[in-house]
Amino acid sequence: MNKRRDFIIGVDIGGTNIHAVLFKNGRILKRITILTPKNLKEFLNKLEKTIREIIPQSGKFLGIGCGIAGILDLKKGTVLKSPNLEFLDGFKIKDWMQKKFHCTVKIDNDARCFLRGEYLFGAGRGYENLVGITLGTGVGGGIIIGGKIVYGANGSAGEIGHMIINSEKDLEETTVKQMRKLKFSKMAEKKFEKNLGIGFSNVVNILDPEIIIIGGGAAENIKTFLPKIKAEAIKSIISPKSRKNVKILMGKLGEDAGAIGAAALFNDNQS
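The structure corresponding to this sequence follows.
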């Protein structure tokens, strides 16, 4: 993780849950999961309490890495827009954490943290061109090309959930909101598989990754649909080589991926 091999706290703030881990030498030593509060005051109280509970007994740690669902201003450490946590819009979360815990704080989008974790420690090890897609309260995305996280000109690259799939509806609207119903009719299942497959094929046609890794709180719900989703994706992938070679797999780190990837913001090659 880092040359000093210190304790690092990793926090993954999602629309449904907050996961925090104490990480050292590639291992999780402690983990806490709480439900994400729905107003700013309660959110900050619960987040502070959770982080304090996970600080090592010595009180010494290198810093806090934090993944947050939403679009961020990484230089200012501000949440610009969080569609599923609107009370965080405009909040300077990095400054708040630094003042509360008197340590170095690094932040990133939660889906990029998920992908960073899987790239370094999970299903993405050994690959250099990857896309991570998180399915939870919303649909998030992260991109690695040539072993480097892609941020884009304004820090918002990877918002895969907001690609338009069906008229004015985006991938998030046409998949996650259907998935919450769970009791699919056959027609609803086919629409779900087709829409997610189209989303994956668009990702492959634009970015040509070696692998797409799926994670997030709702990822387990799509395991049974994955073969049909892959089949739908293959229909619309234009490159014969990409159709043959691209892998679409579930992540290996489970609910820890985002928090591990947040801690990995302190990795020399990814921070």
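The first strand starts at residue 8 and ends at 13.
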